[in-house]
Write a structure and sequence with these properties.
Oligomer: single chain
Distance between the termini: 28 Å
Number of strands: 0
Shape: globular
Strand content: under 5%
Order of helices and strands: HHHHHHHHHH
Largest sheet: none
Helix content: over 70%
Number of domains: 1
Radius of gyration: 19 Å
Number of helices: 10
Length: about 230
Amino acid sequence: MLEALTVNRTLRVGWRYLVIGTAIPLILTIELLISSNRAIVFPTTFPLEVPIFAVLGSTAGLMTFTSDRAKGVFEYLLAYGIQPRTLFMNGLLAALAMSAIILSTSLAIGVGGAVAEGVALKWNFEEAILLYTLPMAFAGALFTSTIGMIWSSVSSPRSGFNSPVGIAPMFGVAPTILVLIIAETVPTSEYYWVTGGAAAIIVVAVLVLLALSARLLGRERFLSPL
């Protein structure tokens, strides 16, 4: 019940991210498809860009978490026996829901546009989607949200860029870009071992942080300072 409520609220609070997450892939798709070399540029570039949109879209879940924390909502939930880890899991679920929506929308726009323009999407495009786009999108979203929620929980509420909502997305986008740079330095046969391994490491880091969240964060940290 609490999970569904959190996701529903995140969709209402983060509708701007859904709009942006739809508009940017559309612009990117148009830009790639009007290229004179679109048959090569689109299949190789589009899968690498999509995770960035999904990571940024997950910020809506973090926004809901930090807003509830600042308004003292967690004070009431904790008083009724809800555990801090449950609040974290709800935040992650909301972030993943937003990322999944933006990810599926981005892929639908990109693939639909390519098919409409007659661009052949071969096995390497599908391989890139399965072995890089999907794992890195969700891993980056989880990492961004986890870092942001911990940061929000142990610090005084802030607004603007100097806040978890403003800075945390960089923690998700940076690994995505770094993995691409590293992967480009290895042989093609090892490319997806690097990207898949990086995604797995990020997910393990998230699980470790969640396991330690009860110890890292005291209950009083969630209470509103007002």
